[in-house]
Amino acid sequence: MVDLSEAAKRVEVLEKFPFEDDQPNIEGPVISVLLDSSVDFRFADKAAFDSRWSEELVYISQLKDLIKQGDFFVNLLYTYRSISKALRVKPGDESNKNEMYEKMYEVLEPEIDKLKKLMYFHQTAIKAFSEHVKRIAGLLKVDKKKEAETFPSQLYLWHVIQVLDRFALLDDLKNMKACLNNDFAFYKRAFQFLRKTISGNDDQNSENHNLYLFLAHQNSITSNLKIALQSIPGYDDVISETINCAADLLDSETHMLPNEKYSLLRIMPFGLILMDGDQNTGGNVFKTKKVKMNRIANVFKRFPVVPLYGDMQITLENVIRRSPHFAEATWATTASTDAKQAEEYELIHHLESVRIQYNEYVAKFANMINELKSTKRDPKQAPFSPREVYTMVLQGLLYLSDWSGKILGQAAWKYAKPNNDPNLVDVDNYERVVRHNYKPEEKFALVEFLAMVKTLATLITREDSLLSPLLRTSIHQEVQEFVQSQIRDAIRTTVKKKRTVSKTDLLNIRSIGADWYGGLENNNDPVLTGKKPPKDERTQLPTRATPPSPTQLALLRMITFGLLNSKKHDWKDGVNKQMETFYNRSYFFDYLLNLSSTILQMTDMGDLWYREFYLELGKKLQFPIDMSLPWILTDNILETKDPSMMEFLFYPLDIYNDSANRALKNLNKQFLYDEVEAEVNLCFDQLVYKLSEQLYTFYKTQASSILMDKAYKGELETFYTGSKLQVPKSRYDVIVKQRHIQLLGRSIDLNLLISQRMNTYLRQNIDYAIARFEASDLTGIMELESLLSNIQLTYFLMAEYYSLDPWEDILAESNERVSLVSFHGRIVLHIIFELMYDFAPNYNFNSITNRFVRTPRTFVEKVVRESMPKLNPLFLYGSKTFNGAYANSAELWKNFIGVPHVSAIVKLVGATDLPLIVSECLQNMDLKIRNVLAPYVSEAFKGLYRSSKLPPHAYKTVGGHGYYESILKDLKSYPELQSELLRNFKEVGNWIIFLNMCELALSQHELGTFRIAAPFLGATSDPATFVLNADAAANSPLYSAIHNLVQFLEGRTTMSKAPEALKEMVANAWRADRMYRPTPQNFSLFKAVLRRISQMLESVRFEWSGGSQQSEKGVLLVDQTAEFYRLWSAILFISCSKIDEGETMTNHELFGDGLFWAGATMIHFLGQKHRFLALDFNLHILNLAESLQDIPPNNTELPLFLAKATLLKDLNNSIFHVLNTYAPPNKKEPTAFAAPEKDTNFAQFVTAASSSNLAGKGTMRPVSTFISAPPTGSSGSFDGAPSFNPPPVPNERPVPPPPSYDYDAPPPPPSDDLDYPPPPPDDFDAPPPPFEEDYDAPPPPPDDFPPPPPDDY
């Protein structure tokens, strides 16, 4: 067993426990967890108190029962839905008619029974109410013989007002529900058909007839009540007294709940109708002096429209017009303009003043609560007394009542004044009063009013446990001061002047409400004998948190009301003023004692959702959510994106909480709750969707602003007005912290829901970015990198607030790297596809700009890609302005492929997938060499002139050029020279250049990584202090710091809670150091690539090195050879000249520098570089031109040829330089040739030379005689020289024109960019190739590829 002291200690511990989190409060009070402690005991303890007013408590209890029953039938009528609309009678179906009517009767009977109960209730209620009217009429009758004045108490009249209000509500609701008559008609038809089988037929016939008359007649309840009251003498005095009482309460603002205020307004015209006689007989109420018509008219003028129930409202003047004696001339009211009346109802006109009241009150209330909590353990030091707390809380309740009344009043005004704009076509009536009846500023004002009401209600109800004891103490003190102190002088006066009735009432107040100090009354009080108490006497009052019971409070107020309205009192005016003050203040005691219940009632905004009247009017089952006011207000905040309103986002949704609470606890209708729940589910889904989209857009915009180049951003800001490139202001941080939003009793983790949406958005965005890349060529890699960088930064910005999946998992899933069909992502596969089918055949490389550009002419079919996804601005850069800015930037990268593109590829594919790209390039290169280039090279050798000697010096430049033009004419005319042979060489060269760029991009990436990791590795500017071996990790700052920390913690067992985790921390530091510390070996990707290329050439090395014509002793064959360099020399020569007369571009311009990279690389690895440099056709022509300078002035083609040949010469030199750097040729021992065994061979040579046709020793035959005879032999080969006449040799060397090799290319980069990196070490190990089956390499060509040349080739 736990003793009381131990239990108290545990409770104290719970009080200190922090139950509240850091979630900002942006919702109303939580209805589901508030305790409603108010219980109406119907004055069950009234017998304990002896007073002449106790009898009235019995009558008030009876009226309370009538009010309760009336509320039940009011709810029944308002929520009644037509059943007959669901019943469809099929005409002509006579066989099942009996069964059909039985089912119809079975369905309708329970509902019609409810209507019959309503009919009987109105009859019994009128009869019971008439008895009360008779009783009150007797009290109001003046009898001068009576010593005591008799009149009803204000509390009694208050309940009479409430009963009259229920009569008025029932009559209006019955008139509104046309479906009642429809259902009864169906029921009556079924009853008539089945009356023979129903017992008690005659009684039911009579009952149905009475119900028919009750439902069919408009205002039948009012008519029956008026008939019953007119038979009571003095009834008009009772009704007039009730109307005047309502006017008094309204003027003195003696009402707490908004509905209480409106009930006072509603019974005024209703009471006047009851008082008014018939047209021909009876009195004219408008001529009576019992009610001041001017006063009533002013009230009607001030409050022309009054809420009735839910979405129903009444216009007071329209109600009074139903009176038989109503006349415009005699009615005192004057119609005001709608604009002037609207200022009283529309919230926007009160917003500023209410906002000031709210801010001032919240500041004072918060300060009071903080002070009370700080002095909770020592109440004597509390800076606020219970009376001050009471005043503060009461002021808050009055504010809530006033603000809530204004909200409901505006809703009623909008219902009464629909938007009748003729431009609104096919618009429902409910849309005219709700959807199209609120301006945007009015929506914001309504939302802000709701926020202020709900926030203040939450602040007060949250502190109920702190405030309630102080409120009870204050009420107890005030009652005791009044009972024991303030009425003492009145008691003395009545005793002295022998006012028996007043004395009895005053002593009853003491006996009913006094809580004597010490528990005993002072019977020796001098005031009981009519004497004055001593001046220095002070009455001691106990301090308790024990307020009076409802019965005590009611009797105290009733007796005080009687004393105040009695004309026979002789006490001083000061005492009378104190009584009046107590009476007025005590009205609020009951509301303050039930604080939470009072706040929930006065802040109930369920009327803003209920629409039963308009459903009945429009014959609808339900309206869509875009016609529902809560969603209209919520959607308005989301659509306008006003940062100042974002904190109020969930206050309109609190209307659903109020509606659902009323449906279950007041209306007792499950179907209404189901409708509210269904609408909430739909609205909340829409809210989360729209809010998530806005949040994602906000973070995307923020990421775009951060990533945009600052200089570029500054330039753009000069063109855009406003702050379009700035991140918009917002208050989303308040929204995203909501983890337990209360909605329909559910606790919703909004942060979790938004996190799920954000995870989805991130995946969809990545998928969208990759889809755009898959629909574009390789230049789209820049846009993809930009989008992925933007998405990644967006992810990290959101990760601060949301629980998101790891970025690597999201990217891998969207990239489909973790699918069951492939271990490689969509990005790398599309890169490979573009490299193979578009980049290699359709791009030309420019060594000057170091860029690839589109070829001016394509020789392959157009690449078919995926279609571009539909434009989605959300998944780009967040806003229209940023989308345009980034689109303009992306356009700069779409006309070429260069190092930035390759760097983006390396960055995106990473170290995991880069080997796959390299492997695919090498595999396709191998296939090209073995299956495509080898057959075409063999065919091309057949087209070469069999003698490949250099033309003699005597040919001069023009003759030498003409000589090569003639012997290469057949090779030029080879049909597939460009489309197949040169194109495939270019593809191989493009791949080689691309892999070289990958090497440069990897070096830059590794340098950047090392620059970041250097401080943690202990790297300094002094290379001698930085060690690259593994043992250096022990001395790195990262490892040393963590190792020392772990040693420090291990030495203190009290601080070390997880030693295993400490060891793992040290191991992780070691692994991190090893991962980021550079290795001593300098690996090179391009060196490994060149090594693989050298291995590929082994399959063609024999054929391309001369084949069977190779000299066994390595002697260079000059006259004729089938070595590759000779063919390539011919291709270079052809590349410097036009293919035919109609061609405007050379091969160099058609294929770019990639063509020559391929040939130079093959020459290098075939070991033919020196032979090529010695025997190249172009170099020979260049040497002739340089030495002879004999180009005729009228020859325009040869200077162009020389310029292009010079360009190719420089290009080949730079290529050989790069190849020598990465893969220097193996050094060979020189071949030794022995002297001839016999000297006769030389003598024979001299003899043959002396007998030749030389003009003289040491001279050659003239060119004219050498070339006079045409070449002989078959087509495609000849023994003689070319058949053309050489032009005369000019005396001066002409200046050649500039080269035409300037196809569309950007300006060249700085000269420093052309420098190649130093040679890598020789021990570079190429990365292992990835799985070959993951990507389908292009199939090898068929056996008959390439096609054989024609017969006349």
Class inferred from helices and paired strands:
mainly alpha
Mean pLDDT: 82
Taken as a percent bin, the fraction of beta residues is under 5%
Oligomerization status of the protein chains: single chain
Number of helices: 50
Helix content: 55-70%
| Largest sheet composition | 3 strands, antiparallel
Please state the CA-atom Rg, rounded to the nearest Å: 52 Å
Q: In angstroms, what separates the terminal alpha carbons?
A: 115 Å
Q: Write down the overall geometry.
A: elongated
Strand order of the largest sheet: 5-6-7
Q: Give the strand tally.
A: 7
Q: Low-confidence parts, pLDDT < 50 over ≥5 residues?
A: 1242-1353
Structural description of this entry:
With 1353 residues, the protein is mainly alpha-helical. Helices cover 58% and strands 2% of the residues. The chain has a three-stranded antiparallel sheet with strand order 5-6-7. Strands 1-2 form a two-stranded antiparallel ribbon. Strand 5 (843-846) and strand 6 form a beta hairpin. Helix 4 crosses helix 9. It is elongated and about 175 Å long. Residues 1242-1353 have low confidence and may be disordered.
Quick take:
The protein is an all-alpha fold and 1353 residues long.
Question: Which secondary structure elements does this structure contain, and how are they paired or packed?
Answer:
Elements: H1 4-16, H2 54-78, H3 97-140, H4 154-176, H5 179-194, H6 201-216, H7 220-230, H8 235-251, H9 258-275, H10 293-302, E1 305-309, E2 312-315, H11 316-320, H12 338-345, H13 351-374, H14 386-416, H15 429-435, H16 440-462, H17 464-486, H18 488-496, H19 500-513, H20 550-565, H21 573-586, H22 589-593, H23 595-602, H24 612-618, H25 629-640, H26 654-665, H27 670-707, H28 710-717, H29 732-736, E3 741-743, E4 746-748, H30 750-774, H31 781-798, H32 807-814, H33 826-842, E5 843-846, E6 851-854, H34 880-891, E7 897-898, H35 899-942, H36 956-967, H37 969-972, H38 977-1017, H39 1037-1050, H40 1059-1076, H41 1085-1096, H42 1101-1104, H43 1124-1135, H44 1147-1151, H45 1154-1166, H46 1169-1175, H47 1177-1188, H48 1197-1222, H49 1240-1250, H50 1263-1266
Antiparallel strand pairs: 1-2, 3-4, 5-6, 6-7
